[in-house]
Design goal:
By secondary structure, this protein is mainly α. The chain has two domains: about 80 residues, Orthogonal Bundle (Arc Repressor Mutant, subunit A), CATH 1.10.10; about 45 residues. Helix content is about 60%, strand content about 10%. It is built from seven helices and two strands; from the N terminus they run H-H-H-H-E-E-H-H-H. It has a two-stranded antiparallel ribbon. Helix 2 crosses helix 4 and helix 3 packs across helix 4. The termini are far apart. Keywords: DNA-binding, Transcription, Transcription regulation.
Length: about 130
């Protein structure tokens, strides 16, 4: 095994892009303020090179998952929303990709537990509650 292989292993095995994005998103969500790529790399414990972190952050910014502001010669990145907000965005994206929204929403509603259905009715307001 050559030096390059050991260096690669020391920085972690190959992971799917989504897995790395989730890991970095978690770091950013736990931070009290926006972080530069160097700060993200440091908090990851050296698992990724600086250039890999920059690439992933740039990709996430392009996907509109992060905001960025200039800090010195680098950008500092922050999530556009919290974890529930990202889950809601994913749900909305799936819904928007389907041609029959009514069928998708009906299947989704049918699959909810009674507790979740009651919660959804509550969140939608009094007009959505059939008992009122």
């Amino acid at each position: 095994m050559g030096l390059d292989s050991r260096d690669s292993q020391a920085r972690g095995s190959k992971r799917a892009n989504g897995e790395r994005e989730s890991e970095i998103l978690g770091v950013l969500q736990q931070a009290e303020a926006a972080l530069t790529p160097g700060e993200v790399a440091e908090r990851l414990g050296g698992e990724l090179t600086y250039s890999s972190v920059v690439t992933i952050l740039t990709r996430m910014h392009t996907k509109q998952l992060l905001t960025r502001t200039r800090r010195g010669r680098a950008y500092a990145y922050a999530p556009v929303t919290d974890d529930p907000g990202f889950a809601a965005r994913r749900m909305r994206t799936v819904l928007e990709e389907r041609p029959d929204r009514e069928a998708v929403l009906a299947r989704f509603a049918d699959s909810l537990s009674d507790t979740d259905a009651d919660l959804l009715r509550h969140l939608l307001g009094p007009d959505a509650d059939p008992d009122r």
